[in-house]
Amino acid sequence: MNVDAVKEQDGRHLARLERRAAELALVTELLLTLGRSLDSVQIRREVLNVAFALTGATRVRLAVRSKDAWDCTTLARGQEEAAEWHPSALGQMVLDRGEAAALRSDDAGADLSSYLGLPVIHDKAILGVLEVEELPVPDRLDDYAYTLSLVASAASLALANARLLEDVQHAGEVLASERERLAVTLRSIGDGVIATDSEGKVSLLNRVAENLTGWSQEEAFGKAFEEVFQIINENTREPCDNPVARVLEAGTIIGLANHTALISRDGTERSIADSAAPIRDGNEEIIGTVIVFRDITLQKQTEAARRRAEEETEQLRRDFLGVISHELRTPLTVIKMATGRALRIKGKSAGLEKNELLRMIDEYADRLNELVDNLLDVTRIEGSSLTVDPVPIDLREIIKEACITFGQTDQTHEIRTDLPDSRLVVLADPRRVRQVLANLLSNASKFSPEKTIVTVWTENLGKEIATHIQDKGLGIAVDRVPDLFRKFSRVHDTGAHKIAGTGLGLAICKGIVDAHGGRIWASSAGQGLGSTFTFTLPKTPR
Predict the structure, then answer these.
(1) pTM, full prediction
(2) N or C: which end of the chain has fewer CB within 10 A?
(3) Which CATH architecture has domain 302-381?
(4) 276: burial class by Cβ within 10 Å (0-12, 13-18, 19+)?
Protein backbone atom coordinates (compact mmCIF):
# COMPACT_ATOMS: atom_id res chain seq x y z
CA MET A 1 0.00 0.00 0.00
CA ASN A 2 1.52 3.33 -1.07
CA VAL A 3 1.73 6.44 1.00
CA ASP A 4 -1.25 8.11 -0.65
CA ALA A 5 -3.46 5.12 0.01
CA VAL A 6 -2.40 5.07 3.64
CA LYS A 7 -3.10 8.76 3.98
CA GLU A 8 -6.53 8.29 2.40
CA GLN A 9 -7.34 5.40 4.73
CA ASP A 10 -6.13 7.37 7.73
CA GLY A 11 -8.21 10.30 6.62
CA ARG A 12 -11.33 8.17 6.41
CA HIS A 13 -10.58 6.68 9.80
CA LEU A 14 -10.01 10.13 11.29
CA ALA A 15 -13.25 11.42 9.76
CA ARG A 16 -15.09 8.45 11.22
CA LEU A 17 -13.61 9.11 14.65
CA GLU A 18 -14.54 12.78 14.43
CA ARG A 19 -18.06 11.84 13.38
CA ARG A 20 -18.29 9.36 16.23
CA ALA A 21 -17.01 12.02 18.65
CA ALA A 22 -19.63 14.47 17.43
CA GLU A 23 -22.33 11.81 17.77
CA LEU A 24 -21.20 10.97 21.30
CA ALA A 25 -21.24 14.66 22.14
CA LEU A 26 -24.86 14.84 21.01
CA VAL A 27 -25.73 11.76 23.08
CA THR A 28 -23.93 13.22 26.10
CA GLU A 29 -25.81 16.48 25.74
CA LEU A 30 -29.04 14.47 25.45
CA LEU A 31 -28.25 12.62 28.68
CA LEU A 32 -27.70 15.92 30.47
CA THR A 33 -30.92 17.38 29.03
CA LEU A 34 -33.00 14.33 29.93
CA GLY A 35 -31.52 14.32 33.40
CA ARG A 36 -33.15 17.67 33.99
CA SER A 37 -36.61 16.71 32.68
CA LEU A 38 -39.39 14.49 34.01
CA ASP A 39 -41.93 15.52 31.38
CA SER A 40 -42.57 12.53 29.10
CA VAL A 41 -43.68 14.73 26.18
CA GLN A 42 -40.54 16.86 26.40
CA ILE A 43 -38.41 13.72 26.71
CA ARG A 44 -39.86 12.27 23.51
CA ARG A 45 -39.27 15.55 21.69
CA GLU A 46 -35.61 15.78 22.81
CA VAL A 47 -34.94 12.14 21.87
CA LEU A 48 -36.40 12.61 18.39
CA ASN A 49 -34.42 15.79 17.77
CA VAL A 50 -31.14 14.05 18.64
CA ALA A 51 -32.06 10.95 16.62
CA PHE A 52 -32.83 13.17 13.62
CA ALA A 53 -29.58 15.11 14.09
CA LEU A 54 -27.59 11.84 14.26
CA THR A 55 -29.16 10.14 11.25
CA GLY A 56 -30.74 12.79 9.02
CA ALA A 57 -33.52 10.22 8.39
CA THR A 58 -36.63 11.28 6.54
CA ARG A 59 -38.80 10.04 9.37
CA VAL A 60 -37.94 9.49 13.05
CA ARG A 61 -40.53 8.02 15.39
CA LEU A 62 -40.74 7.26 19.13
CA ALA A 63 -43.71 5.23 20.33
CA VAL A 64 -44.12 4.81 24.11
CA ARG A 65 -46.50 2.32 25.65
CA SER A 66 -49.25 3.77 27.88
CA LYS A 67 -51.95 1.78 29.69
CA ASP A 68 -54.08 0.75 26.72
CA ALA A 69 -52.42 2.40 23.71
CA TRP A 70 -49.24 3.95 22.32
CA ASP A 71 -48.22 7.55 22.73
CA CYS A 72 -46.39 8.35 19.51
CA THR A 73 -44.43 11.39 18.30
CA THR A 74 -42.93 11.56 14.80
CA LEU A 75 -40.45 13.91 13.10
CA ALA A 76 -41.04 13.95 9.35
CA ARG A 77 -38.22 15.83 7.61
CA GLY A 78 -37.62 17.58 10.89
CA GLN A 79 -41.25 18.60 11.43
CA GLU A 80 -43.17 17.15 14.40
CA GLU A 81 -46.29 15.15 13.74
CA ALA A 82 -48.75 13.56 16.16
CA ALA A 83 -50.30 10.36 14.93
CA GLU A 84 -51.45 7.02 16.20
CA TRP A 85 -48.92 4.23 15.97
CA HIS A 86 -49.72 0.70 14.94
CA PRO A 87 -46.65 -1.52 14.81
CA SER A 88 -45.56 -2.56 11.33
CA ALA A 89 -44.20 -6.05 10.77
CA LEU A 90 -40.70 -4.75 11.56
CA GLY A 91 -41.94 -2.80 14.57
CA GLN A 92 -43.75 -5.87 15.87
CA MET A 93 -40.55 -7.87 15.42
CA VAL A 94 -38.74 -5.37 17.67
CA LEU A 95 -41.48 -5.73 20.29
CA ASP A 96 -41.59 -9.52 20.11
CA ARG A 97 -37.85 -10.10 20.22
CA GLY A 98 -36.81 -7.14 22.33
CA GLU A 99 -33.97 -6.61 19.85
CA ALA A 100 -33.09 -4.15 17.07
CA ALA A 101 -34.42 -4.82 13.57
CA ALA A 102 -32.91 -3.36 10.34
CA LEU A 103 -33.81 -3.24 6.66
CA ARG A 104 -31.89 -2.07 3.60
CA SER A 105 -33.39 -2.49 0.14
CA ASP A 106 -32.04 -1.62 -3.31
CA ASP A 107 -35.46 -2.27 -4.87
CA ALA A 108 -36.77 1.04 -6.24
CA GLY A 109 -40.40 -0.19 -5.84
CA ALA A 110 -40.03 -1.04 -2.14
CA ASP A 111 -42.01 0.93 0.47
CA LEU A 112 -38.82 1.62 2.42
CA SER A 113 -35.24 1.75 1.26
CA SER A 114 -33.97 1.58 4.81
CA TYR A 115 -35.36 1.05 8.34
CA LEU A 116 -33.90 0.75 11.78
CA GLY A 117 -35.97 -0.01 14.89
CA LEU A 118 -34.67 -0.33 18.44
CA PRO A 119 -36.49 -1.30 21.64
CA VAL A 120 -36.53 1.15 24.53
CA ILE A 121 -35.99 -1.15 27.49
CA HIS A 122 -35.87 -0.43 31.21
CA ASP A 123 -35.51 -3.09 33.88
CA LYS A 124 -36.20 -5.83 31.27
CA ALA A 125 -39.52 -4.23 30.30
CA ILE A 126 -40.10 -2.73 26.85
CA LEU A 127 -41.29 0.85 27.29
CA GLY A 128 -41.44 1.71 23.59
CA VAL A 129 -39.82 1.61 20.17
CA LEU A 130 -37.45 4.10 18.48
CA GLU A 131 -37.71 3.94 14.66
CA VAL A 132 -35.88 5.72 11.82
CA GLU A 133 -36.83 5.39 8.17
CA GLU A 134 -35.22 6.40 4.88
CA LEU A 135 -31.66 6.90 6.13
CA PRO A 136 -29.47 9.12 3.89
CA VAL A 137 -26.60 6.61 3.94
CA PRO A 138 -28.10 3.12 4.21
CA ASP A 139 -24.63 1.55 4.17
CA ARG A 140 -24.02 3.00 7.65
CA LEU A 141 -26.79 0.99 9.36
CA ASP A 142 -24.31 -0.51 11.82
CA ASP A 143 -23.04 2.93 12.83
CA TYR A 144 -26.59 4.22 13.15
CA ALA A 145 -27.56 1.19 15.25
CA TYR A 146 -24.72 1.84 17.69
CA THR A 147 -25.40 5.54 18.23
CA LEU A 148 -29.20 5.10 18.33
CA SER A 149 -28.81 2.31 20.90
CA LEU A 150 -27.19 4.91 23.17
CA VAL A 151 -30.09 7.26 22.49
CA ALA A 152 -32.60 4.49 23.26
CA SER A 153 -30.81 3.72 26.55
CA ALA A 154 -30.89 7.38 27.55
CA ALA A 155 -34.55 7.55 26.60
CA SER A 156 -35.40 4.41 28.60
CA LEU A 157 -34.00 5.83 31.84
CA ALA A 158 -35.62 9.24 31.34
CA LEU A 159 -39.00 7.75 30.39
CA ALA A 160 -38.87 5.37 33.36
CA ASN A 161 -38.21 8.29 35.69
CA ALA A 162 -41.03 10.30 34.10
CA ARG A 163 -43.39 7.34 34.45
CA LEU A 164 -42.35 6.94 38.07
CA LEU A 165 -43.14 10.59 38.66
CA GLU A 166 -46.53 10.19 36.98
CA ASP A 167 -47.24 7.14 39.16
CA VAL A 168 -46.25 9.07 42.27
CA GLN A 169 -48.42 12.01 41.23
CA HIS A 170 -51.32 9.69 40.49
CA ALA A 171 -50.81 7.96 43.83
CA GLY A 172 -50.78 11.38 45.48
CA GLU A 173 -54.00 12.30 43.72
CA VAL A 174 -55.57 9.00 44.77
CA LEU A 175 -54.36 9.53 48.33
CA ALA A 176 -55.70 13.08 48.35
CA SER A 177 -59.00 11.82 46.98
CA GLU A 178 -59.14 9.11 49.61
CA ARG A 179 -58.33 11.62 52.31
CA GLU A 180 -61.08 13.90 51.08
CA ARG A 181 -63.52 10.99 50.90
CA LEU A 182 -62.54 9.97 54.42
CA ALA A 183 -62.93 13.55 55.62
CA VAL A 184 -66.38 13.81 54.01
CA THR A 185 -67.34 10.46 55.51
CA LEU A 186 -66.17 11.50 58.96
CA ARG A 187 -68.00 14.81 58.66
CA SER A 188 -71.15 12.96 57.66
CA ILE A 189 -71.04 10.48 60.55
CA GLY A 190 -73.49 11.40 63.29
CA ASP A 191 -71.17 10.03 65.98
CA GLY A 192 -67.99 11.57 67.33
CA VAL A 193 -64.76 10.00 66.01
CA ILE A 194 -61.28 10.43 67.48
CA ALA A 195 -58.16 8.68 66.16
CA THR A 196 -54.83 8.40 67.95
CA ASP A 197 -51.36 7.13 67.11
CA SER A 198 -49.66 4.18 68.81
CA GLU A 199 -48.60 6.44 71.69
CA GLY A 200 -52.14 7.60 72.43
CA LYS A 201 -51.65 11.05 70.90
CA VAL A 202 -54.66 12.55 69.10
CA SER A 203 -54.29 12.58 65.33
CA LEU A 204 -57.85 13.27 64.16
CA LEU A 205 -61.22 14.58 65.38
CA ASN A 206 -64.32 14.83 63.25
CA ARG A 207 -66.76 17.73 63.57
CA VAL A 208 -69.09 15.95 66.01
CA ALA A 209 -66.13 15.09 68.25
CA GLU A 210 -65.04 18.74 68.13
CA ASN A 211 -68.51 19.86 69.26
CA LEU A 212 -68.76 17.30 72.05
CA THR A 213 -65.24 17.72 73.46
CA GLY A 214 -64.87 21.46 72.85
CA TRP A 215 -61.50 20.89 71.14
CA SER A 216 -60.78 21.72 67.51
CA GLN A 217 -58.72 19.42 65.29
CA GLU A 218 -55.84 21.90 65.29
CA GLU A 219 -55.88 22.35 69.07
CA ALA A 220 -56.16 18.65 69.88
CA PHE A 221 -53.60 17.33 67.38
CA GLY A 222 -50.65 15.73 69.18
CA LYS A 223 -52.16 16.04 72.64
CA ALA A 224 -52.62 13.08 74.98
CA PHE A 225 -56.00 11.46 74.42
CA GLU A 226 -57.03 11.70 78.10
CA GLU A 227 -56.47 15.46 78.02
CA VAL A 228 -58.99 15.89 75.20
CA PHE A 229 -61.40 13.09 76.18
CA GLN A 230 -62.14 13.43 79.90
CA ILE A 231 -64.69 10.91 81.17
CA ILE A 232 -66.12 10.17 84.61
CA ASN A 233 -68.58 7.76 86.19
CA GLU A 234 -71.89 9.60 86.54
CA ASN A 235 -72.68 7.90 89.84
CA THR A 236 -69.33 7.90 91.65
CA ARG A 237 -67.94 11.04 89.92
CA GLU A 238 -64.59 9.24 89.70
CA PRO A 239 -62.46 9.37 86.50
CA CYS A 240 -62.91 6.39 84.18
CA ASP A 241 -60.08 4.27 82.79
CA ASN A 242 -58.48 5.59 79.60
CA PRO A 243 -60.07 3.51 76.77
CA VAL A 244 -57.13 4.17 74.42
CA ALA A 245 -54.64 2.80 76.93
CA ARG A 246 -56.83 -0.28 77.41
CA VAL A 247 -57.04 -0.88 73.65
CA LEU A 248 -53.28 -0.44 73.13
CA GLU A 249 -52.64 -2.86 75.98
CA ALA A 250 -55.26 -5.50 75.13
CA GLY A 251 -55.29 -5.10 71.34
CA THR A 252 -59.06 -5.69 71.21
CA ILE A 253 -62.27 -3.69 70.87
CA ILE A 254 -63.64 -2.37 74.15
CA GLY A 255 -66.72 -0.42 75.19
CA LEU A 256 -67.31 2.12 77.93
CA ALA A 257 -69.12 1.10 81.08
CA ASN A 258 -72.66 2.30 81.70
CA HIS A 259 -73.18 5.68 83.36
CA THR A 260 -70.20 7.30 81.64
CA ALA A 261 -70.16 11.08 81.21
CA LEU A 262 -67.90 13.21 79.00
CA ILE A 263 -66.68 16.50 80.45
CA SER A 264 -66.13 18.94 77.60
CA ARG A 265 -63.52 21.68 77.58
CA ASP A 266 -66.04 24.26 78.87
CA GLY A 267 -67.23 21.95 81.67
CA THR A 268 -70.42 20.76 80.00
CA GLU A 269 -71.31 17.21 81.04
CA ARG A 270 -72.90 14.78 78.61
CA SER A 271 -73.87 11.14 78.97
CA ILE A 272 -72.13 9.11 76.26
CA ALA A 273 -71.85 5.59 74.90
CA ASP A 274 -68.79 4.55 72.94
CA SER A 275 -66.39 1.88 71.78
CA ALA A 276 -62.69 1.91 70.99
CA ALA A 277 -60.78 -0.32 68.59
CA PRO A 278 -57.16 -0.81 67.48
CA ILE A 279 -55.95 0.37 64.05
CA ARG A 280 -53.62 -2.20 62.46
CA ASP A 281 -51.29 -1.99 59.46
CA GLY A 282 -50.78 -4.62 56.76
CA ASN A 283 -48.60 -6.64 59.15
CA GLU A 284 -51.30 -6.64 61.84
CA GLU A 285 -49.21 -4.31 63.98
CA ILE A 286 -51.16 -1.77 66.06
CA ILE A 287 -50.41 1.71 64.75
CA GLY A 288 -53.14 3.59 66.60
CA THR A 289 -56.71 3.53 67.90
CA VAL A 290 -60.10 4.87 66.88
CA ILE A 291 -62.83 5.87 69.33
CA VAL A 292 -66.44 6.25 68.21
CA PHE A 293 -68.87 7.83 70.69
CA ARG A 294 -72.25 9.54 70.76
CA ASP A 295 -74.21 11.83 73.05
CA ILE A 296 -77.00 9.84 74.73
CA THR A 297 -78.04 12.58 77.17
CA LEU A 298 -81.39 13.15 75.44
CA GLN A 299 -81.92 9.41 75.10
CA LYS A 300 -81.36 8.91 78.84
CA GLN A 301 -83.61 11.84 79.66
CA THR A 302 -86.29 10.39 77.39
CA GLU A 303 -85.95 6.98 79.01
CA ALA A 304 -86.16 8.54 82.47
CA ALA A 305 -89.25 10.51 81.43
CA ARG A 306 -90.77 7.32 80.00
CA ARG A 307 -90.12 5.47 83.25
CA ARG A 308 -91.66 8.32 85.23
CA ALA A 309 -94.68 8.32 82.91
CA GLU A 310 -95.04 4.56 83.31
CA GLU A 311 -94.82 4.90 87.08
CA GLU A 312 -97.39 7.69 87.04
CA THR A 313 -99.65 5.67 84.78
CA GLU A 314 -99.36 2.68 87.08
CA GLN A 315 -100.15 4.87 90.07
CA LEU A 316 -103.13 6.32 88.20
CA ARG A 317 -104.25 2.79 87.36
CA ARG A 318 -104.09 1.75 90.99
CA ASP A 319 -105.92 4.91 92.06
CA PHE A 320 -108.51 4.33 89.36
CA LEU A 321 -109.09 0.74 90.43
CA GLY A 322 -109.54 1.94 93.99
CA VAL A 323 -111.97 4.67 92.92
CA ILE A 324 -113.88 2.40 90.53
CA SER A 325 -114.12 -0.28 93.21
CA HIS A 326 -115.60 2.30 95.54
CA GLU A 327 -117.87 3.81 92.90
CA LEU A 328 -119.17 0.36 91.96
CA ARG A 329 -119.40 -0.96 95.49
CA THR A 330 -121.40 1.98 96.85
CA PRO A 331 -124.40 1.75 94.47
CA LEU A 332 -124.29 -2.03 94.47
CA THR A 333 -124.34 -2.06 98.27
CA VAL A 334 -127.28 0.35 98.35
CA ILE A 335 -129.17 -1.60 95.67
CA LYS A 336 -128.50 -4.88 97.45
CA MET A 337 -129.59 -3.45 100.79
CA ALA A 338 -132.70 -1.77 99.38
CA THR A 339 -133.72 -4.89 97.44
CA GLY A 340 -133.34 -7.12 100.52
CA ARG A 341 -135.30 -4.69 102.66
CA ALA A 342 -138.07 -4.41 100.06
CA LEU A 343 -138.43 -8.19 99.98
CA ARG A 344 -138.67 -8.45 103.76
CA ILE A 345 -140.97 -5.58 104.83
CA LYS A 346 -144.61 -6.24 105.66
CA GLY A 347 -147.45 -4.39 107.22
CA LYS A 348 -149.62 -1.38 106.47
CA SER A 349 -146.72 0.98 105.74
CA ALA A 350 -144.94 -1.48 103.48
CA GLY A 351 -146.19 0.22 100.32
CA LEU A 352 -144.74 3.62 101.14
CA GLU A 353 -141.41 2.19 102.29
CA LYS A 354 -141.17 0.00 99.21
CA ASN A 355 -141.68 3.01 96.97
CA GLU A 356 -138.83 4.84 98.72
CA LEU A 357 -136.63 1.76 98.38
CA LEU A 358 -137.47 1.45 94.67
CA ARG A 359 -136.59 5.12 94.23
CA MET A 360 -133.20 4.46 95.83
CA ILE A 361 -132.65 1.40 93.60
CA ASP A 362 -133.52 3.44 90.52
CA GLU A 363 -131.20 6.30 91.54
CA TYR A 364 -128.21 4.08 92.19
CA ALA A 365 -128.90 2.00 89.09
CA ASP A 366 -128.63 5.26 87.15
CA ARG A 367 -125.26 5.88 88.81
CA LEU A 368 -124.07 2.45 87.74
CA ASN A 369 -125.31 3.04 84.22
CA GLU A 370 -123.51 6.41 84.09
CA LEU A 371 -120.28 4.77 85.30
CA VAL A 372 -120.52 2.05 82.64
CA ASP A 373 -121.27 4.67 79.96
CA ASN A 374 -118.21 6.65 81.02
CA LEU A 375 -115.99 3.59 80.85
CA LEU A 376 -117.33 2.78 77.38
CA ASP A 377 -116.75 6.37 76.21
CA VAL A 378 -113.15 6.30 77.43
CA THR A 379 -112.61 3.03 75.56
CA ARG A 380 -114.07 4.56 72.37
CA ILE A 381 -111.94 7.70 72.74
CA GLU A 382 -108.74 5.68 73.17
CA GLY A 383 -109.67 3.54 70.16
CA SER A 384 -110.53 6.65 68.07
CA SER A 385 -114.03 5.23 67.58
CA LEU A 386 -116.08 7.82 69.48
CA THR A 387 -118.68 9.11 67.05
CA VAL A 388 -120.72 12.30 67.09
CA ASP A 389 -123.72 13.29 64.96
CA PRO A 390 -123.37 17.06 64.50
CA VAL A 391 -126.39 19.06 63.41
CA PRO A 392 -127.14 22.80 63.56
CA ILE A 393 -128.26 23.57 67.13
CA ASP A 394 -128.88 26.71 69.20
CA LEU A 395 -126.19 26.48 71.88
CA ARG A 396 -128.11 28.90 74.12
CA GLU A 397 -130.99 26.47 74.50
CA ILE A 398 -128.66 23.53 75.22
CA ILE A 399 -126.87 25.54 77.94
CA LYS A 400 -130.15 26.69 79.54
CA GLU A 401 -131.50 23.15 79.52
CA ALA A 402 -128.30 21.74 81.04
CA CYS A 403 -128.20 24.36 83.79
CA ILE A 404 -131.87 23.79 84.71
CA THR A 405 -131.39 20.02 84.80
CA PHE A 406 -128.27 20.31 86.93
CA GLY A 407 -129.93 22.80 89.28
CA GLN A 408 -132.71 20.31 89.95
CA THR A 409 -130.20 17.76 91.23
CA ASP A 410 -127.80 20.18 92.97
CA GLN A 411 -129.42 22.58 95.41
CA THR A 412 -126.13 23.65 97.04
CA HIS A 413 -124.85 26.07 94.37
CA GLU A 414 -126.30 28.93 92.40
CA ILE A 415 -125.96 28.53 88.62
CA ARG A 416 -125.89 31.85 86.76
CA THR A 417 -125.85 32.27 82.98
CA ASP A 418 -124.88 35.23 80.85
CA LEU A 419 -126.09 34.45 77.35
CA PRO A 420 -126.82 36.70 74.33
CA ASP A 421 -130.36 37.40 73.16
CA SER A 422 -129.67 36.11 69.63
CA ARG A 423 -129.29 32.49 68.66
CA LEU A 424 -125.86 30.82 68.87
CA VAL A 425 -125.99 28.28 66.07
CA VAL A 426 -123.21 25.70 66.18
CA LEU A 427 -122.66 22.40 64.40
CA ALA A 428 -122.70 19.82 67.17
CA ASP A 429 -124.23 16.64 68.56
CA PRO A 430 -126.77 17.91 71.14
CA ARG A 431 -126.59 14.77 73.31
CA ARG A 432 -122.79 14.97 73.52
CA VAL A 433 -122.82 18.73 74.22
CA ARG A 434 -125.25 18.12 77.12
CA GLN A 435 -122.82 15.44 78.38
CA VAL A 436 -119.88 17.90 78.30
CA LEU A 437 -121.90 20.61 80.09
CA ALA A 438 -123.14 18.14 82.72
CA ASN A 439 -119.59 16.96 83.42
CA LEU A 440 -118.17 20.48 83.68
CA LEU A 441 -121.06 21.71 85.89
CA SER A 442 -120.68 18.66 88.11
CA ASN A 443 -116.94 19.26 88.32
CA ALA A 444 -117.49 22.92 89.29
CA SER A 445 -119.98 21.92 91.95
CA LYS A 446 -117.85 19.15 93.49
CA PHE A 447 -114.79 21.33 93.91
CA SER A 448 -116.55 24.51 95.12
CA PRO A 449 -117.80 25.36 98.60
CA GLU A 450 -121.56 25.25 99.11
CA LYS A 451 -123.57 28.41 98.44
CA THR A 452 -120.95 29.69 95.95
CA ILE A 453 -121.82 30.77 92.43
CA VAL A 454 -121.06 28.85 89.22
CA THR A 455 -121.22 31.14 86.16
CA VAL A 456 -121.75 30.06 82.55
CA TRP A 457 -121.28 32.44 79.63
CA THR A 458 -120.38 32.33 75.94
CA GLU A 459 -117.98 34.20 73.69
CA ASN A 460 -117.91 34.66 69.93
CA LEU A 461 -114.43 33.75 68.61
CA GLY A 462 -115.05 34.20 64.91
CA LYS A 463 -115.48 30.74 63.40
CA GLU A 464 -116.31 29.13 66.74
CA ILE A 465 -118.26 29.77 69.93
CA ALA A 466 -116.55 29.39 73.31
CA THR A 467 -118.46 28.33 76.43
CA HIS A 468 -116.95 29.22 79.83
CA ILE A 469 -117.86 27.58 83.17
CA GLN A 470 -116.35 29.45 86.11
CA ASP A 471 -116.41 28.41 89.77
CA LYS A 472 -115.19 29.87 93.07
CA GLY A 473 -113.70 26.62 94.24
CA LEU A 474 -110.41 24.95 95.09
CA GLY A 475 -108.58 26.18 92.03
CA ILE A 476 -105.71 24.37 90.36
CA ALA A 477 -101.95 24.67 90.83
CA VAL A 478 -100.49 26.08 87.61
CA ASP A 479 -98.10 23.13 87.15
CA ARG A 480 -100.99 20.64 87.36
CA VAL A 481 -103.20 22.24 84.68
CA PRO A 482 -101.65 20.15 81.83
CA ASP A 483 -102.65 16.93 83.67
CA LEU A 484 -106.33 17.81 83.99
CA PHE A 485 -107.58 16.10 80.85
CA ARG A 486 -105.67 12.83 81.28
CA LYS A 487 -107.82 9.87 82.21
CA PHE A 488 -107.82 8.90 85.89
CA SER A 489 -106.15 12.22 86.66
CA ARG A 490 -107.01 13.77 90.03
CA VAL A 491 -104.83 16.81 90.47
CA HIS A 492 -105.82 17.90 93.96
CA ASP A 493 -104.23 16.97 97.25
CA THR A 494 -105.26 14.03 99.41
CA GLY A 495 -108.10 15.92 101.04
CA ALA A 496 -109.78 16.42 97.67
CA HIS A 497 -109.66 12.72 96.98
CA LYS A 498 -112.53 12.36 99.41
CA ILE A 499 -114.68 13.97 96.74
CA ALA A 500 -116.49 11.33 94.72
CA GLY A 501 -115.45 10.81 91.12
CA THR A 502 -113.62 8.45 88.79
CA GLY A 503 -111.23 10.90 87.15
CA LEU A 504 -112.79 10.17 83.76
CA GLY A 505 -115.11 13.16 83.29
CA LEU A 506 -112.63 15.68 81.94
CA ALA A 507 -110.94 13.09 79.70
CA ILE A 508 -114.35 12.29 78.20
CA CYS A 509 -115.09 16.01 77.74
CA LYS A 510 -111.84 16.43 75.82
CA GLY A 511 -112.58 13.41 73.63
CA ILE A 512 -116.04 14.72 72.77
CA VAL A 513 -114.85 18.26 72.04
CA ASP A 514 -111.95 16.94 69.93
CA ALA A 515 -114.41 14.82 67.94
CA HIS A 516 -116.30 18.02 67.07
CA GLY A 517 -113.10 19.75 65.92
CA GLY A 518 -113.19 22.06 68.93
CA ARG A 519 -110.80 22.86 71.77
CA ILE A 520 -110.98 22.57 75.55
CA TRP A 521 -108.75 24.06 78.23
CA ALA A 522 -108.68 25.20 81.84
CA SER A 523 -107.27 28.22 83.63
CA SER A 524 -106.79 29.08 87.26
CA ALA A 525 -104.99 31.77 89.19
CA GLY A 526 -103.90 29.09 91.64
CA GLN A 527 -105.13 26.94 94.48
CA GLY A 528 -108.08 28.41 96.37
CA LEU A 529 -108.77 30.96 93.61
CA GLY A 530 -111.32 29.06 91.55
CA SER A 531 -111.13 27.72 88.00
CA THR A 532 -112.54 28.39 84.55
CA PHE A 533 -113.11 25.61 82.04
CA THR A 534 -113.63 26.57 78.41
CA PHE A 535 -114.57 24.57 75.32
CA THR A 536 -115.29 25.67 71.75
CA LEU A 537 -117.60 24.37 69.05
CA PRO A 538 -117.56 25.30 65.36
CA LYS A 539 -120.24 27.60 64.02
CA THR A 540 -122.60 26.36 61.35
CA PRO A 541 -121.17 27.22 57.89
CA ARG A 542 -123.23 29.87 56.15
Answers:
(1) 0.44
(2) C
(3) Orthogonal Bundle (1.10)
(4) buried
